[in-house]
Amino acid sequence: MTSIKSKPISILVAALVAILLAVSTEAQQHRATRLGNPATRFAKRRIQKTEDVRVLLRGGRTKADVDAILAGAGWKGNLEDFDRAAASADIARIEIPAGTRLPFMASRERGPGHKPHVLMDVLWAGKEPIDAWAFELVSRCTRYRVVVPLACGNFWVEDLGGACAPPVVNVNTPDDVCVTQPIEIAVDVKNPPADGKVVVTFNGREVASGYLSDGFYSAGIPGVARPGAYEVNVTAGDVTSSSTVHVKACVPVCATTAWPNPAKAGRPIGVDVLGSNVAPGVQGGIKSAMIEIVRDGVVVDTVEITAPDLSRDDIIIKKSGAYTLRAFVVDEAGQTSINACETTIDVKGGLPIFAGAYFGKERMTHDSGPGSPGGRCAPLVGAEVGIQHRIGARAEVEMALGGKLNARDGENSSLFADVAFSCLMKGCFIGGGVSAWDLTRDNGSRLLALLVQGGVDLTHDGRWRFVAQARAPFARFDDLDDNYQLWGGLRFRTFHSN
Question: pTM of the full predicted structure?
Answer without folding.
Answer: 0.50
